User: Which sequence fits this backbone?
């Protein structure tokens, strides 16, 4: 794998200035959370840097990457462009950047929808995307506070926020988000 500076230069050339800054902020938040929750800081930082690497690509280019990576999009995914960049980002990192670390790739792959039984690294990158310094949505301070105390509480809060927001606008909700919500909630009930 290349140096972090190499990957920063890649995203700087692929992303708008605001998306580049967002990626740096997510990486910083992921590194901070990794120290709190005991996962690999370098992997968290790198996944944060790369999580939106294809976000500003056209959909056709993203679809092509996903297909080259031997994945088929469901009808729901094709009709829900907001989730495509997490899949194309994973594919780009594997196919174009030669990243083979499945922990990093899966953290990129599920940073938008989440999924059932997420690893700590996946949760860290998912949460970091919600709490990065450039975020300013209602309740962001509550989310940041929760993230420092409990990843699962932060995940539940963000999933409830996302699912409710999408449902209120009659937008498609990826089944991975429902499965993630139920998985995190079940784990909390066990505790």
Assistant:
């Amino acid at each position: 794998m290349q140096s972090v500076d190499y990957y920063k230069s890649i995203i700087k050339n692929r992303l708008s200035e605001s998306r580049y800054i967002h990626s740096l902020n997510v990486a910083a938040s992921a590194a901070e959370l990794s120290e709190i929750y005991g996962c690999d800081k370098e992997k968290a930082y790198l996944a944060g840097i790369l999580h939106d690497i294809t976000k500003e690509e056209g959909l056709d280019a993203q679809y092509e990457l996903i297909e080259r990576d031997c994945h088929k999009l469901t009808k729901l995914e094709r009709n829900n462009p907001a989730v495509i960049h997490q899949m194309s980002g994973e594919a780009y990192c594997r196919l174009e950047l030669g990243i083979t670390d499945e922990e990093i790739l899966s953290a990129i792959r599920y940073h938008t929808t989440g999924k059932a039984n997420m690893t700590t690294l996946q949760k860290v990158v998912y949460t970091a995307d919600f709490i990065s310094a450039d975020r300013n949505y209602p309740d962001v301070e509550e989310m940041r506070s929760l993230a420092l105390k409990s990843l699962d509480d932060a995940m539940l809060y963000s999933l409830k926020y996302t699912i409710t927001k999408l449902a209120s606008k009659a937008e498609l909700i990826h089944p991975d988000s429902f499965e993630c919500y139920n998985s995190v909630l079940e784990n909390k009930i066990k505790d």
User: Anything to note?
Assistant: The CA atoms of residues 35 and 55 lie 27 Å apart. The longest helix spans residues 17-37. The chain has eleven helices and no strands. The chain has a mean pLDDT of 96.
